[in-house]
Amino acid sequence: MTRIESDYDMSADAFRRGLGTLDMAMTGSIPLPSASESQGASLAVTAGASASLERDPGMPSTTWRMRSDAWEYLRFAVKRLVYGNDGADLLASDGEIQRSLRTLETVEMYWAGFGQRYVRAIGELLEAGDFRTALDRIGRVVNRLRGDTVPEEPRDEFIDEQERAELSTDADPRPRFEVLIVDETTPSERDATRSEGLRLRAGADAFIYEFVIVPSADDAVAAVLTNPNILACVVRPGFSERTKQRLSRDLRETIDLARAEVTPGQAPSRSSLASVQRVLGLADTLAAIRPELDLYLMAGAHIEDLAGALTRRFRRVFRREDQLELHLSLLRRVSHLYDTPFFSAIQDHARRPVGVFHALPVARGGSVVSSKWIKDLADFYGLNLLLAETSATSGGLDSLLAPVHTLKKAQELAARAYGAKHTFFVTNGTSTANKIVHQALVSPNDVVMVDRNCHKSHHHAVMLTGARPAYLEAYPLNDFAFYGAVPLNRIKQMLLEYRAAGRLDEVRMITLTNCTFDGIVYDPERVMAECLAIKPDLVFLWDEAWFAFAAFHPVTRRRTAMAAAKRLEQRFGTAAHAAAYREQRDRLVSAGGEFAPDTAWLDERLIPAPDARIRVYATQSTHKTLTALRQGSMIHVYDQDWVREAEEAFHEAYMTHTSTSPNYQILSSLDIGRRQVELEGFELVQRQLDLATSLSQAIARHPLLRRTFRVLTAHDLIPSDNREIGRPMPLRDGLSTMWKAWATDEFVVDPSRITIEISRTGVDGDTFKHEHLMDRYGIQVNKTSRNTVLFMTNIGTSRSAIAYLIEVLVKLAERFEEEQAQRDPEIPLPAEVPMPPLPDFSAFSSGYATDTVLPDGDMRAAFFRGQQRGAVEHVRHEELRERVANGTIPVSAGFVTPYPPGFPILVPGQLITAEVLDFMAVLDTREIHGYDSRRGYRILRDTGE
Q: The Orn/Lys/Arg decarboxylases family 1 pyridoxal-P attachment site domain covers which part of the protein (predicted)?
């Protein structure tokens, strides 16, 4: 018998177990298990790992992987039928083949190309015993899914001309996308539609598209949730509401959640247009799930009235006979998404012969290609890097400081992609982006409420602007030695305290980190709404350095700053919101203008006034989670008072911090990275979240791994008072559970980040990172704490990478168990130094505090006093501890910032307490900015404390 296991690199039994519940998960043919039964892994480990893991039926895989695995399994199983001597017996005994075929018959409705009829034909071939032909047909699908070339002339005699034409284009190198048509049609009508699409194709077209045709609104929502290749949708009013497909409970619930969130606008009153409301609801639902989708309406009667009523929802309204216009519109729209004006300009510049008579000897490779000693620079990076090196003064490439052509357009396209009103590129990281926003919006002596454990750049920015920081305390996770996020009630309480003191007018801005380094995600819509109910002109800066990817998934998008700002703007304009505001206002504020007690304001979900101003800024490290070169960042703006109050100051701040010689390679990477996320961001983020869940499942289920490591869940990272759904890892229970959690919980955990608790290994996080993961196996991680390691997936993570990480963790677990088994019990283990509680911000010293009641202080004055040599002394840790024990309260002269995670333990003017020193004494971070281990802490002399 021919060896065929190598095709998937695992045994038949392991393969079968890994895919054994595909159609159960998709079609819901078995009940979901209990919570305790849902802790299993969803990744089948490849050869080399210690055990094979089977997919947990309680965790429906994302469809991209389910579909791929089902086709791969069919190919594997049918090869056994072809090359085995007992094909008929194998077919009868292998129930997975039939289950996979049933799954694919459901799934393929939502994908173009092969379709349900193709799947049924394979089943008929298997029943007839024609295994070789079935294998050939299955192979074509697998090759397309893998991106391989398919023979242009299929050998199957019974393939009709339409299928032959579709299959023959698989070798076409042009980018391919799919178009969803929503209409209840017959098979012959569907064939006619596809044939018409093929007829309209031309060799000059830059792209190729294929149709996905579904009969109902439910199926349309299912298609855009599961098929990332869909970039446009054509709605015909003849569709039905509910699906006839056998879908899983999870997918059905997700469809219902998506449709329930959208309330369509008022439809025209004419009875002949009664179906418009239904069309509006579907259009709004699809747009909310996938904003990048291009929506078209194809109608018959009353097209003129429809065009006027539906302009906001649909790009164009067509009659059914306008197929050519629709075809051209589909291609034109995708060309707009594909457009990268600045990257194209860089390419054009690199190809153009020029004479260089300005700065930059490296430009055009001038100082490199003719050199005897540094030609390896061009060999390593490539000549294009040097040909593209230039400056704004050379012409044609636009200036970042005052863009009017290609860069301006590139930034406008980025604003469209991320849902902002304005977007600005930054070439020296989000640290600079944060300083730009602070300087643009904040003046000296303004109060800025700052998350104390936010990135150091915010603290530095507050110091530079002369604003007074009022530090907000995040809840501590003392067992793991890092902080969570700031509860909303703490933010509201501080605003109410400023109001009671008569200083609310001084509070200018709130800055929070969304999501945190460790993956704690706020609900920006709720935070901003309730804060605006107390101070309606408050400005918000959301540091989304680690959250840029979130804009491209329908669940994670809702918690981005830009999406939240848009939802608030839409909500504030409704009559229902105005009525709810008036009702609550009558309860919380008396006729004489007196406020109800603070407890009432804290206990209620506050409703802002309809005329509250939405002023929202987000900074994103695009390079951290999306495609961009290092230091490529963006600033997104959703500010209703942009022109009146912010635009000029912002441009001045941008000039202050932006280099006059920005790196054009970084800018072009931001431009082309934007193209990627608009065209395939949903697919990439969906895959990223699925693979991260696979990793957590594998660790939770593998008997050796779960003895050694523990995946931290929402139950570990979020207090119970700040979550409602109650599931430890919502995505592991299905997309609908994640949807509910992200819609209701105050905090959620970014499922793309997996934090592993490693106490049972016997080594600390820093040692585990450097000596075991990086030095031994080449696995790179960004952050550790004393007893945790953070594994971050991204849009470039592959299934092979996840499998390799699991293999490495298994080997390390075996190593740690062996070391512990061989340890001499006569030799006691070193005494573990207990981790002290994470220190809160102590206070500003009296010399820099604004008053004795509220927490803000003049950090800038303390910082510049700390630059005066005679005003500062260095004190070593033990001596400083003695001073504090004797009643002295020293004052920090500067910032002390462990990195990672990069937030200050001490800031200028802060009192140094015993709690701070205890925490610093046990820090295992190798890099601490602002602290010299030889000389000690910098403290201010003669502070009067």
A: 340-565, 615-799
